[in-house]
């Protein structure tokens, strides 16, 4: 699995990502329409460790998705290109957001109260079990235009004149 290179519109941010499949997942959800200004977005879900930012520093925009959990969008502070999204999947997600150092507390742990220590263990457990995945925008990659359409999600929000080009799920594939 070789890495793909990508860069934002202005070139201030560059990254490498390992794709699991040479295909785009088309997302028709209304959030993607708003954030991208198009009929749908082109993505893939990969483990967080598959992405490496090699140049520049990203800004973050946070919103609450359908599940009520916070989603962080990472974008170029100069040209605003959205590079990837990350939904915190653990039960302590909002708390973790409030305290970004929560996962770096190893050496401080004895000084923390017992409920806080338990909370940290819970977050670590959920990340291990559920894995930590991100949604990357595949069309921003150098090879993005050569990837095929692999599947479509949030078909329920598809614009009436946008044709189906791959297997479509009304919302998400059953897990
Ligand atoms: Zn940029
Ligand atoms: Zn979407």
Automatic annotation (TrEMBL):
Entry keywords, A to Z: Lyase, Metal-binding, Zinc
Xref: Gene3D superfamilies: glutathione-dependent formaldehyde- activating enzyme (gfa)
Pfam families: GFA (PF04828)
Protease is among the record's keywords: no
GO molecular function, a single term: metal ion binding
InterPro entries per the UniProt record, alphabetical: CENP-V/GFA, Mss4-like_sf
Signal peptide per UniProt: none
Domain CENP-V/GFA: 4-126
PANTHER family: DUF636 DOMAIN PROTEIN (AFU_ORTHOLOGUE AFUA_1G03180) (PTHR33337:SF30), GFA DOMAIN-CONTAINING PROTEIN (PTHR33337)
Family: Belongs to the Gfa family.
Name listed for the protein in its UniProt record: CENP-V/GFA domain-containing protein
Organism: Hyaloscypha bicolor E
Record lineage: Eukaryota, Fungi, Dikarya, Ascomycota, Pezizomycotina
